[in-house]
Write a structure and sequence with these properties.
With 316 residues, the protein is of the alpha+beta class. The chain is built from 8 helices and 21 strands.
Length: 316
């Protein structure tokens, strides 16, 4: 199933996609539904925590939904499908992204946090605030949504804890993230480079794990103003989704609604920025960025079978 959050009557409603319609789960709730499940139909995190019982109830609601519970998707203003307080992030998880920037040696996944205060939804504007950055960059990433709590989860059982997937654009202030020393080495500051208003577009929907046959076989693309900038596959991840669940659960107990971002491939604007140590990739299937994001740019982040996230950059 595909779940969305959308605006209605000044509030946010939870819906499921059914063809070209959004089925409002509360409006479609079957008579006699358990109170806990009815509450889950009003909140994405509660629905996720409800597990299989929540999914089965949602499927029944969609199947029996009256016409009054359906709204054409084209008429819905979608919000981010989930608004986590924090996003657990893994950087440098594709070899070609490592190769396009200053070298960093590590044996474990890069671990940083992104604040939920920066989450926006599909169609929302990404602000280019000159007080924050002059080098605003894009990063299309597969976002894992945890459904079952756990700590020290072995990779072989990670699938039991994954509820679904969505798309995130890990918008980055490169001139905050990296500084080059005179000797050519670099200093990373992931806190300010990754955290600011509108730094995390997410959406458009959460696709449940049962609809994603293999999360390591998904095509991933980024287009800026129609120009193909990133073109890769999740098969090229250094650490798989399962391995990242294992890694992050070493440190914290993963709870329903926790999200893990899995890194971006090469093709970022950073790769074309010699001032920050970028090394322009020699690929013929993508266009090398002529510069960083500017007001008016449209960024399309697309992952096969998961979704197409579109946002426009505006002056902040």
């Amino acid at each position: 199933m595909r779940f969305v959050r959308y605006g209605r009557g000044g509030g946010t409603r939870l819906g499921a996609l059914d063809g070209d319609s959004v089925v409002d789960l509360l409006d479609a709730a079957p008579l006699g539904i358990a109170p806990a499940l009815l509450a889950a139909f009003a909140d994405m995190t509660r629905l996720i925590a409800a597990g299989d019982a929540g999914l089965q109830a949602a499927k029944l609601a969609v199947k029996t939904a009256p016409a009054a519970a359906r709204t054409p998707l084209a008429k819905c203003r979608l919000h981010a499908p989930i608004t986590p307080s924090l996003i657990l992030c893994s950087g440098e998880n594709y070899w070609d992204h490592r190769e396009e920037k200053p070298e960093v040696t590590r044996k474990d996944p890069e671990f940083f946090l992104k604040t939920g205060l920066g989450v926006i939804g599909p169609g929302d504007d990404v602000l280019l605030d000159p007080a924050v950055t002059k080098k605003l960059d894009y990063e299309t990433e597969l976002l894992i949504v945890i459904g079952k709590p756990g700590r020290h989860i072995p990779a072989a059982r990670a699938h039991e804890h994954i509820w679904g997937y969505t798309v995130m654009n890990d918008v980055t202030a490169r001139d905050r993230q990296v500084t080059l020393r005179p000797d050519g080495s670099s200093v990373y500051n992931l806190g300010p480079g990754k955290n600011f208003d509108t730094c995390a577009p997410v959406g458009p929907a959460i696709v449940t794990a049962d609809e994603v046959r293999d999360p390591q076989k998904l095509e991933l693309r980024t287009r800026v103003n129609g120009e193909l900038r990133q073109n890769n596959s999740t098969a090229k991840m250094i650490w798989t989704c399962a391995q990242l669940v294992e890694f992050f659960s070493t440190f914290v107990t993963l709870q329903p609604g926790v999200v893990i971002s899995t890194g971006t491939p090469g093709g970022t604007a950073w790769g074309s920025d010699a001032e920050l140590g970028g090394k322009k990739p020699m690929r013929k299937d993508v266009a090398a960025a002529g510069g960083y994001l500017q007001p008016g740019d449209e960024v399309v982040c697309e992952i096969e079978g998961v979704g197409r996230l579109v946002n426009r950059v505006v002056a902040g």
